[in-house]
Amino acid sequence: MEQLGYFLMSFTSVKMILLITAGTFAGIYIGAIPGLSVTMAVSVLISFTFAWELDDALCLMAGIYCGGVYGGSRSAILLNIPGAPAAVATSFDGYPLAKLGEAGVAIGLSTTASVIGGYIGILALATCAPIISEYALKFASRDYFLLAIMGLLLVGSLASESLSKGIFAGALGVWLSMIGMDTFTAQGRFTFGSIGLMSGIHFVAIMIGLFGVSEALVQIHDIHIQPVKQDVKNIVPSWSRLFKHLPLIIKSSLIGIGIGALPGAGGDIAALMAYGSARRSIKNPTRPFGEGAYEGVIAPETANNACIGGDNIPMLTLGIPGDAVTAILIGALYIHGLKPGPMLMIDTPHLFWFWVGALTLANTAVLPLGLTGIRVFAKCVEIRKGLLLPIIIIISTVGTYAIQNSLYDVYWMLGFGILGYILKMYGFQMGPVILGVILGPIMEDGFRRAMQDVQDSVPMFFWGFVSSPLSLALVVITIAMLGGQYNWWGKIRKAFTKTL
Hints:
The chain is mainly alpha-helical. It contains 24 helices and two strands. The chain has one domain.
């Protein structure tokens, strides 16, 4: 009963409800602005809470966190500019839905799926935190390498018709992620003598350029076409539609929780993996994936928000950040006199349950706040392209400059916009490039640390894949995913099914 009292504390205080609501509102609308990610929203707004009472500060943190994670989907759906890296996968089918006049439906689906996924993630945090954190702690460096390889195999799902183009785009993303200073030797790589490239190219500049600017350049070809009138009457999805997609929601939530529980992984990887899983497993989507499938919006948004609960598991139980946002939250908790880790659950269990309650209330606030203002947002798509395209370029420029207050990021953003335009003209998809940029550092770091663990012995490196049950399971899944990229795998499976 005492734990329930701490869980409900934020629900019974008008002040805390207002703080959580205000934080959620701010998180949603800051997260919707390209370049102003949830990480930036949390880092800026949390700085105002350092002199506050602990409970009040935790309430605002929870609101900003949940609202910011959800907010990136709006600009991804309406403008094809993901407000945050985790919303990249949402744009694959969300923007085609907006082009079909169903922006309201897409935002309604993304909101409800996000809230349901958030509840499932928070439930996992409340019930399974110690178990999942111990499981995540067993991941060795080679397992992170295998996890990145599994993620890169999604290029087959994201590459539309041509697997070879998807592999090329994915490899391009991995190469881009390697530009800059080597984290092991501190030597410059692919910098061509430029000091400005020693810190690498910021991921958000690449993302906004490839998605936002390139899309604006592509749309110039159709500048005289009248905008599609958006249907914003049926925003809230019906119960029958939600029930139909419930298995996908549960599956995507589990992916989000599992990825979030891995230290260093985050919502962007979870969303991409959930999207790839949905694309492979769903035989009869509402539309072909990439052309406005409802499932293509539901899967990444569910996983993205379920990842909130997963990210909090290593943060609270081990003191290890699940992603960049939880790293900032750990710093804020230290400033308020708390020490996230195993002793937090023992010394101050009431704070754990208070935080779970605040996250639950913040996730609840996402539903009404996320479903309001859609009519105004949907008008963005109905603006005449001659006016809309310059606005997209301006928003992209401002958002990119705001990352580090650097004009170099703006130059890179414009350069990648032109590159993305050229690639799109030749039938390349941008998803595999972003996938490579995200997973490249994880793959490289996992491989090099694994080699260090076995003192650069290649036989011992490969022996580790079969000597550990966890690694062996990941190898089997990786082989199955690789086989699933080719038609002969389906033929073998069909022949095997007939013999049974």
